[in-house]
Amino acid sequence: MTEMVGKNVAVYEPPKQTRVAMLYWRLPEEWIDVLHPWLNTILTFYEISDPPIPSPFSGIPIPLLRRAITILMRSNRAQIIRVAEVHKESVPFLQLST
To answer: For position 93, what pLDDT does the model report?
Structure first.
């Protein structure tokens, strides 16, 4: 597992432990291209990971989706907007921009 993490094909999830890893079937950078059709749209993480019509994001682990979105946030192409509290957790909305 350490070797796969070292080759960037897996990441420890949650971080700061080495017993459980999430394997990438696509790197977070590769998910950015898949997010492209949703530019200029506001969506929840739930809407992306559990869409009514199956998509490449169907069932994507939220930590992996967050990693891809973080890359977009660094280049100001996405932002997470916290607008409500549901069961003591905020509902993050994602806005993608061109």
So the answer is: 54
